[in-house]
Design a protein that fits this description.
heterotetramer, A alpha/beta (about 325), B mainly alpha (about 325), C mainly alpha (about 270), D alpha/beta (about 350), B: about 325 residues, mainly alpha, MetI-like fold, about 80% helix, flat, D: about 350 residues, alpha/beta, Rossmann fold, 8-stranded mixed beta sheet, 4-stranded antiparallel beta sheet, about 25% strand
């Protein structure tokens, strides 16, 4: 039987600090609201949305760096949330994450060799010379030199650091890599190189990745499916081709319109959004998008639209359909 | 805003309860029983039992604690074992003296440190900045009781300008000048460390603020230097200073204790030393509670002030 | 490395280190450096001003102040160091637990810190000393165990911010245990402020001991400590300025040297 | 013929560092004509922000600014601080990148918008208030009365950036320097701010220097663009020419990632510059380590900024030259480059 590599069910996260006697109770902040999706072996899934849409929360939940308020995450059929810390540590080998900020995500006082090799040590895989050999090989594969092993992260540029991050994640041969905006902190000319590197490595290492981005154009080239998120919810999920050809949700259309000089859209209608993403402490009723939507009806304010299959696995959450 | 205030007050009450509990525990750690010091009671078991009953010492500890706490809230800190007077009375004689000394020197050190600190930050690295920095280094390093001795040596014994001890000349009628003369040296001694400490914080605080992006904005608007300093820099730098002052307060009391000792200032500091030496536990504990209460109270006021000045907290 | 070069350039750092080393050597070789037995009284020579025989003069019992000051450095420095070590150890441990685990652990530790921190340190020390007597060991322990809250707050703040940093999250994602994360990733990065705090704890402990002895609550006479000499001098310094001047100056210089060391360390590590 | 509004000659910015000086900007010269919108593009560390802030001598105290900046014929860099202040905010307004950190957290936004008017025009706060309200509503902010009393942390990112723009426009400056005005914002908001700037551009007779790392944003608003790399201008030209036919390999790498670029991509083989590239400037062309078409002459001496082709025109009153700093174009080697590798 084949089950999805990753299956996310009803995943919900509210950031909330319980008020104790000594600290103020904070307002509940909506980060993720009832998110469901499956991901299959071999596919590259992209998650796109603006700040506050919950994409980074989702990345941290999938890798269980934070705990969900509700919901389940099944990875290779195992319920991650139910695992105890020891079991979870073991499974992390298969489940890696790459962070957005190449400067903050590397420990400043360790040499690159130690950083990249640490995963092997933690999981008791290799030690000493064998470990170093492997580190050298992986560094070579991400486009760095063996000599870089003895240098410190500060000596590298943003793009090179992101390569180190990739090496650290890949040395464990993970099944799934969650890449949380891995290129958005990089300069335009470097972005493409890192994305190309990740694709090449995907062939060699046979891992799958979830690529999180705020920028729709970045993901167009390489992802199989795209999830569009808005204020904690999935608003559209479709294959990349369909999404760009026939975007359904108004928000998706607005995102595509916001890409300047897109040839495909030059002659089509443009959607320019008014206003901003509402405060997640106090999300709008019904459809989260209705205050900014020019097609908003009564029902949009009252009922939450759920994802509907519009054929060919093109899912959209909108009362218009 | 009100939730913040009430929470903060609640927090202060918790701290004070903790303080009282800690003091109570310390009191019960005292070696032997206080009545051992009383020769009349010492060899008379019946009297001891009566003595204990009278002071509820035969009750379980938690009962003792609560009755002690209750008494304390009513101002009854027990009887001094040495002076044979209610501790409360002794306290009322001494707290004002300590508050006069600490209050004056807090004021003086702030008046000195704010302009110097601001100047130092604006002219960071200059000759005068280095002079001020050297002074602050000396100020935080010099033991204030030694400084007090040196000042007495010069100003009292050598030049005979100022009195060396006490709060006023004994036998003289009240005169403000006399008070001020007595106050001058202790205030200087106590203020040196505080001023040095505050200068460092003001300097660091102002320096940090002038590095901020919004100062570039203010400059880009073409505002005058004075406007930038007063409206943009000082407002932001003043807030952390409130916290710094309240954190410094315990050290000010520690300094006051030594200063009072050197200048025979009739305050709590000198009293706790003599009470400790004579094992007058009720007095020692009462002083501790009192000082902790004063510090907590000031911290509370500082926090509330901070909250009402900082828009970022007000709306949380 | 670059740090080495900066150390060489930082004259204040070297200067303070030289003074501290000198003080250390003085404490270590005290018996070889003194001209007199610090405890030997020569009442006929009392309160002699400084001269070729008694460099710093003599005290009210005719003891050589120079010899007493030299021996006093042993007490001051050992109390300074051991108490500071206790402060740092306790403070780091509790601060780390509170900062890393948060929640109830944090609440309990921080409430304890809040309570201790409102007591002026010397008041608390004196009270404890009145309960436990003022032996050498007691004083070290009491100074050490009353001074940790400041360190704990600092370490807690460091740990809290480091815990959330991406590189720590990345190590967690690799599957590292809490112990490994704390000892190999958070602690080394929190070390700079801890080192500075440690350097600044030494003069705090030295001052506490000196103050205590000055008040007559420290190590009992006739053991020579700088604070003890100052206490004895309190009644005599109007006739004999040297009685107070020299021990006080030694406290001053020692405390200043450590403060300088701490400051320059902060500068060195910050940049 | 009209005079240029801003003329920059040989601008240089050096930052004092522990290891000595570090040259953020070196020998930059350009003109901005009245009402013209010019883009200044470069990646982080290229010196574009230092260059724009140095025009008003706003770099931090460690930065030393050299060269000449003529505003309306006056060399403002030689003015004493007191007189320079009369230009800041009044003649030249600045929009900064990150509205959260560039707004004072403890002052209401009303005060922050009004203060340049009170300072420069010597009007009362009441009078300034009228204009502040007008500006805010022009920026598309509803209930501006209430907003005036709020603090920056209470506002959303888009509103903050609008406040920032109102502040810069308060005294109707003749030149607006916009330093990455959209970078900190989300995609849909970026679009709104770009539209807002476009409207401002049409409504006011103001010249704009738009500093950005994003060529697409510049393309939306500018007539002309200057590309910076490693503290130098490497290429200038009209925005259409640049997109149609990027000459410098660096410009080409920027243009290639644009979705509208239709030619064969070169793909830069080199990594982004190692972080210390400015403290360790190579002999020869600064771009040599990342250039796919590097030849021996590139390693020898640095190429000069060479004028290429004829004059371009903005409207019909201002002319400019296409310029590029690359050895390939130094001796009429144009044809060679036309063939993709």
């Amino acid at each position: 039987m084949t089950y999805p590599l990753l299956s996310v069910k009803n995943l919900t996260k509210y950031y909330k600090k319980e008020g104790s006697l000594f600290s103020p109770p904070e307002d509940e902040v909506l980060a993720l609201d009832d998110v469901n999706f499956d991901m299959y072996e071999g596919e590259t899934l992209s998650i796109v949305g603006e700040s506050g849409c919950g994409k980074t929360t989702l990345a941290k939940l999938i890798t269980r760096l934070i705990e969900p308020t509700r919901g389940f995450i099944f990875f290779q059929g195992k319920d991650l949330i139910s695992l105890n810390p020891g079991e979870m540590r073991k499974i992390r080998r298969k489940l890696q994450i790459i962070f957005q900020d190449p400067y903050a995500s590397l420990p400043p006082r360790m040499k690159v060799g130690e950083i990249v090799g640490e995963g092997l040590e933690i999981h008791g895989l290799f030690k000493g010379g064998k470990k170093m050999e492997l580190v050298k090989r992986v560094l070579g594969e991400v486009g760095l030199n063996a000599g870089d092993m003895n240098r410190y992260p500060q000596e590298f540029s943003g793009g090179q650091r992101q390569r180190i991050n990739i090496a650290r994640a890949l040395i464990l041969h993970p099944r799934l890599v969650v890449a949380d905006e891995p290129v958005s902190a990089l300069d335009v000319s470097v972005k493409g190189q890192i994305i190309k590197l990740m694709q090449d490595l995907k062939e060699n290492y046979r891992f799958n990745y979830i690529f999180i981005s705020h920028d729709l154009t970045t993901v167009e080239e390489f992802s199989h499916r795209v999830i569009i998120m808005y204020l904690g919810r999935i608003v559209e999920l479709a294959s990349t081709r369909k999404l760009f050809e026939k975007p359904m949700h108004i928000y998706t259309r607005a995102l595509i319109s916001a890409v300047p000089h897109r040839k495909a859209l030059r002659n089509k209608e443009k959607f320019i959004l008014e206003g901003e993403v509402p405060d997640p402490r106090n999300p709008p009723s019904g459809c989260h998008f209705h205050p900014r939507c020019s097609f908003s009806q009564d029902i949009c304010q009252k009922e939450r639209p759920f994802l509907k299959d519009m054929g060919n696995n093109h899912l959209v959450a909108c009362h218009l359909y | 805003m009100y939730p913040f205030f009430s929470r903060r007050i609640f927090h202060a009450i918790i701290v004070l309860l903790g303080v009282s509990l800690l003091t109570f525990v310390m009191m019960n750690l005292a070696p032997g029983d206080p009545y051992h010091l009383d020769p009349e009671l010492r060899f008379n078991p019946e009297a001891v039992a009566r003595w204990k009953e009278l002071r509820q010492l035969d009750q379980p500890l938690h009962v003792q604690y609560f009755s002690w706490l209750k008494n304390m809230l009513q101002g009854d800190f027990g009887i001094s074992l040495v002076h044979n007077k209610p501790v409360w009375e002794l306290m009322m004689e001494r707290v004002p003296a300590t508050l006069l000394l600490t209050g004056t020197s807090l004021l003086v050190s702030l008046l000195i440190s704010i302009p110097l600190g601001v100047f130092s930050a604006l002219r960071k690295g200059s000759f005068w900045d280095q002079v001020i920095s050297s002074f602050t280094l000396g100020g935080v390093s010099i033991p204030n009781f030694w400084l007090g001795m040196l000042l007495i040596l010069f100003f009292s014994y050598h030049f005979k300008w100022l009195p060396a001890a006490g709060m006023r000349t004994v036998g003289m009628e009240f005169s403000l000048l006399d008070y001020l003369k007595h106050l001058l040296l202790p205030t200087v001694v106590l203020s040196v460390a505080s001023a040095a400490y505050f200068i460092r914080y003001v300097r660091a605080g102002v320096w940090e603020v002038i590095q901020q992006d919004y100062i570039i904005t203010a400059r880009a608007k073409g505002l005058g230097d004075m406007t930038i300093l007063l409206r943009h820099v000082l407002r932001n730098a003043a807030l952390p200073l409130i916290t710094v002052i309240s954190l410094h307060l315990p050290y000010l009391f520690t300094g006051a204790m030594l200063t009072e000792y050197v200048f025979s200032w009739p305050g709590m500091g000198r009293w706790i030393v003599s009470a400790t030496l004579s094992r007058d536990y009720p007095s020692v504990m009462a002083i501790n509670i009192m000082v902790a209460f004063l510090v907590t109270l000031f911290n509370l006021v500082a926090d509330l002030l901070y909250a009402s000045f900082d828009p970022r907290i007000k709306y949380r | 490395m670059i740090l080495g070069k900066r150390v060489q350039k930082n004259k204040i750092f070297i200067f303070s280190l030289v003074i501290i080393t000198g003080l250390f050597l003085m404490a270590l070789f005290a018996p070889h450096l003194v001209s007199h037995d610090p405890l030997k009284t020569e009442t006929e020579n009392w309160l002699t001003p400084p001269g070729p025989d008694n460099w710093f003069g003599t005290d009210r019992l005719g003891r050589d102040i120079y010899s007493r000051v030299v021996f006093g450095s042993r007490i001051s420095l050992s109390i300074g160091f051991i108490s500071a070590a206790i402060m740092i150890f306790t403070g780091t441990l509790l601060g780390a637990l509170a900062g890393y685990y948060g929640g109830i652990v944090d609440n309990l530790i921080m409430r304890l810190t809040d309570i201790i921190i409102v007591f002026p340190v010397l008041f608390l020390i004196i009270t404890l000393i009145s309960l436990f007597d003022s032996g050498f060991i007691h004083i070290i322990l009491i100074i050490g165990f009353t001074g940790w809250p400041v360190v704990a707050r600092l370490v807690r703040a460091e740990f809290m911010s480091l815990r959330e940093r991406d590189f720590v999250q990345a190590i967690r994602a690799l599957g590292a245990s809490d112990l490994r994360i704390i000892t190999r990733h958070i602690l080394p990065n929190a070390l700079d402020p801890i080192v500075v705090a440690a350097t600044l704890s030494v003069p705090a402990a030295i001052l506490a001991e000196a103050g205590l002895s000055f008040l007559g609550l420290g190590i009992p006479a006739p053991v020579p400590t700088w604070g003890n000499i100052l206490r004895e001098a309190h009644g005599y310094f109007r006739q004999a300025w040297w009685y107070a001047a020299f021990p006080g100056a030694f406290i001053f210089v020692t405390v200043m040297a450590f403060n300088l060391l701490g400051e320059s360390l902060k500068d060195l590590l910050d940049s | 013929m009209e005079k240029p509004l801003l003329e920059v000659k040989d601008l240089a910015v050096n930052f004092k560092r522990e290891e000595g000086f570090f040259k953020a900007v070196e020998g930059i010269s350009f003109k901005i004509w009245p009402r013209e919108v010019v883009g200044l593009v470069g990646e982080s560390g290229s010196g574009k922000t230092a260059a724009s802030l140095s025009l008003l001598n706003l770099t931090s105290s460690r930065g030393k600014v050299g060269g000449e900046v003529f505003f309306d014929g006056v060399n403002i860099l030689t003015l004493p601080e007191r007189k320079l202040k009369k230009f800041r905010g009044r003649q030249i307004g600045v929009i900064f990148q990150e509205p959260m950190t560039f707004l004072n957290p403890v002052l209401t936004i009303g005060v922050q918008i009004m203060e340049p008017m009170v300072e420069h025009w010597k009007i009362s706060w009441g009078q300034a208030r009228e204009r502040a309200l007008y500006l805010l509503s022009e920026m598309g902010i509803k209930d501006s009365e209430r907003r005036m009393k709020e603090y920056p942390h209470q506002l959303s990112g888009g509103i903050r950036q609008r406040v920032m723009i109102s502040m810069a426009l308060a005294c109707s400056p003749r030149l607006l320097i916009a330093d990455e005005p959209t970078t900190a914002l989300d995609v849909t908001l970026q679009y709104q701010i770009i539209e807002l700037l476009r409207r401002i551009r049409e409504k006011t007779p103001m010249a704009i220097l738009l500093v950005s790392h994003d060529l697409e944003v510049v393309r939306e608003l500018c007539d002309r663009v200057m590309i910076m790399y490693g503290g130098r201008i490497v290429e200038t030209g009209g925005i259409r020419e640049i997109f149609k036919d990027p000459l410098h390999p660096y410009t080409r790498s920027l243009v290639e990632v644009s979705p509208s670029f239709e030619r064969v991509a070169w793909r830069l083989p080199g990594e982004d510059a190692p972080f210390s590239y400015q403290s360790n400037i190579p002999a020869g062309c600064r771009f040599q380590h990342r250039c796919s078409r590097v030849s021996r002459e590139c390693k020898g001496a640095e190429p000069s900024l060479k004028e290429i082709g004829g004059k371009g025109w903005i409207g019909n009153s201002f002319s400019f030259h296409r310029q590029v700093r690359c050895w390939k174009y130094q001796e009429g080697a144009l044809e060679k480059d036309e063939k993709p590798l």
